[in-house]
Amino acid sequence: MAAGSEPSQPYTPESTAFRSALEVIRGVEPRVADAIGAEIEDQRASLKLIASENYASPAVLLAMGNWFSDKYAEGTVGRRFYAGCRNVDTVEALAAEHARELFGAPHAYVQPHSGIDANLVAFWAVLAQRVESPALERAQARHINDLSEEDWAQLRRALGDQRMLGMSLDAGGHLTHGFRPNISGKMFEQRSYGTHPATGLLDYDAVRAAAHEFRPLILIAGYSAYPRLVNFRIMREIADEVGATLMVDMAHFAGLVAGKVFTGDFDPVPHAQITTTTTHKSLRGPRGGMVLCDSSLAEYVDKGCPMVLGGPLPHVMAAKAVAFAEARQPQFQDYAQRIVDNAQALAEGLKRRGATLVTDGTDNHLVLIDVSGYGLTGRQAESALLDSGIVTNRNAIPQDPNGAWYTSGIRIGTPALTTRGLGTAEMDEVADLIDTVLARTTPGTTASGKPSKAQHTLAGGVAAQVSERAAELLAKHPLYPGIDLS
Ligand SMILES: *Cc1c(COP(=O)(O)O)cnc(C)c1O
After folding, report:
1. Dihedral of the CA atoms 312, 317, 319, 322 (nearest 10)?
2. How many Å lie between the centroid of ligand 1 and the Cα of residue 278?
3. pLDDT 10s digit of each residue in the chain, 486 long?
4. Which CATH architecture has domain 330-475?
5. Burial bucket for residue 258 (CB in 10 Å: 0-12, 13-18, 19+)
6. What is the residue extent of each domain of the chain?
7. Whose CA is nearest to atom 10 of ligand 1?
């Protein structure tokens, strides 16, 4: 819109930007434009409690939709295998600089496309640094195009039988921490540590004992579904005792580190030799990953592409630079603190209504409800909540009797609702909505009349009543209030 002209209705730059973008897309494939428009409506209408999701700012979203997407930029800043990377260098250097400042890290590699990719880069870097093998040295010194068949054969042998110790899946660890269905479980011989059966808390003595017995090359800390603090100083001591490299995967809680809620012993970056993360969870950036490390690992980490990563996504690196700049603002620290305050209020509200929580509460952004107390499986609870407009995900709990598919847990998290502006008083209402649904859901029966782990029955009217109350709550905190596509 020309400067000085009077808009016919209130508009914001972001409304104009997204409306115009949809108009351009509609000219080619209207169904895609419609789906994008429908997605913001769906997100606006749902009470999103998925602990790994968030809402990135319009600036972050817009930084991704441009011609940076057209550039190949294999290599690193100032050392590319492709010509014409001047502007990509600018945004990649900015993203890395913001990341180093934000996390106090000596080195940041901002090319990984996702958290899983960041972990692969980290595994490669630690193997290349720590495993003695001429093939690994050659792979590190050259471009992978220049490796011979024999080099690759030697490399496969050198990588064999390396060991990794990580948190077990049912205690909240991640698939990429050495579990079978993931490539990490084929690259490494894996063993896991769990939580204390009585308290549900991480048992450092058990971690230490496992590390001394197993002698891993990599000790991994970090989780997707553990609601408590982890003391990374102790984890580093354990790693040092057995000569392991400490790797922390902070994919879930990076926003709490960036926002200075996790400091001292609970900030992984000063303690771990290498820290990986996603950028789209509590950190509230674009979908992507990142590796932070000390200077001894930097040269190995920077070789992530093309060793294990596809070409960098310059448009996403531009958005990472924007997101990290946002996270360096003082408001982000306030946001991070509110995430935890909200999670604790939600936990209290659930407990007051009789819910059982794994570890009886939370120190971070997530709460794990043991829904067996309601006589349900995680799958039944997840479906009943979804019927009522509440989006969560089922999750295994420690020693889960229902396994990883049906599960006995519901994982809920507060980063997204906190971005929307909901506060602690409203978390009590959210707790009431969740409790109301779960208390009025009963397991269904299978064809042969046995109790089903999948089917559920929700008492009449509950889904509609709860959806309406959720909609009222959301109406008070509109999502993307500056964006009007009508
Ligand atoms: C989410 C998550 C990942 C994977 O991130 P993607 O971006 O989905 O690849 C890795 N590790 C942990 C601990 C996670 O929670």
Report:
1. 180
2. 6
3. 344 444 445 689 999 999 999 999 999 999 999 999 999 999 999 999 999 999 999 999 999 999 999 999 999 999 888 889 999 999 999 999 999 999 999 999 999 999 999 999 999 999 999 988 888 888 778 777 788 888 888 877 877 779 999 999 889 999 999 887 888 888 889 999 999 999 999 999 999 999 999 999 999 999 999 999 999 999 999 999 999 999 999 999 999 999 999 999 999 999 999 999 999 999 999 999 999 999 999 999 999 998 899 999 999 999 999 999 999 999 999 999 999 999 999 999 999 999 999 999 999 999 999 999 999 999 999 999 999 999 999 999 999 999 989 999 999 999 999 999 999 999 999 999 999 999 999 998 888 888 889 999 998 999 999 999 999 999 999 999 999 998
4. Alpha-Beta Complex (3.90)
5. buried
6. 67-327, 330-475
7. 115
Residue 251 CB–ligand 1 contact under 6 Å: yes
According to DSSP, the β-strands at 356-357 and 393-395 are unpaired
Atom in ligand 1 nearest the alpha carbon of residue 249: 13
Q: Which one is the CATH code of 67-327: 3.40.640.10, 3.30.1660.10, 3.90.640.10, 2.40.30.10? A: 3.40.640.10
Alpha helices in 287-423 (DSSP H): 295-301, 304-307, 314-327, 330-352, 378-387, 403-406, 415-420
Which residues are designated catalytic? 72, 74, 249, 278, 281, 287
Report the nearest-CA residue for atom 3 of ligand 1: 115
Pocket test for ligand 1, best of 169, 278, 309 (most atoms within 8 A of CB): 278
pTM above 0.90, yes or no: yes
